[in-house]
Amino acid sequence: MIETNSIKAWYLAARPKTLTAAAVPVLLGIALAYKDAQQIQTLPALLCLLFAWVMQIDSNFVNDYFDFKRGNDDETRLGPKRACAEGWITERAMKTGIIVTTLLGCAIGLPLVIYGGMAMIWVGMACVAFCFLYTTT
Question: For 2-56, what is each residue's pLDDT tens digit?
Fold first, then answer.
């Protein structure tokens, strides 16, 4: 039994197995940057990786919440169980989780403006938008 809104419930809702999908493009970018410059700027590389992970978790929360609201995660659903549909996380708590992960991602990504210029604002805004558009459209 998974207790409602418990750490275990949030862990399962974050879907840690999906974090590699967020990490691979960043690691590829880091490898290509190293190939070109023969060095790695550690702080922006780590910020990019952390941003990608938080945005992946945000996307997972958004997907969990909106699929539940639409009734997509019923008993006929194939694949792993989802937190809202199983009652592991309440709707209100998931909305809060989405807000927190979205804001956390923005806070992590904002310093990348120092390294990539104002274009990073547009990249970050696109990432946030696609976290929601992935599921909500």
Answer: 999 999 999 999 999 999 999 999 999 999 999 999 989 999 999 999 999 999 9
Pull the structure tokens for residue 6.
């418990």
The H-or-E segment that residue 52 falls in is helix 42-70
How far lies 75's CA from each of 9, 10, 26, 62, 113, in Å? 19, 21, 36, 20, 45
Closest of 56, 58, 65, 59 to residue 83, by C-alpha = 65
pTM: 0.92
Q: What is residue 5's DSSP assignment? A: T
Question: Which pair of tokens denotes residue 78?
Answer: 């194939």
Q: Which two tokens stand for residue 91?
A: 């709707």
Q: For residues 55 and 102, give the distance between their C-alpha atoms in angstroms, rounded to a whole number.
A: 7
* Residue 109, amino acid: G
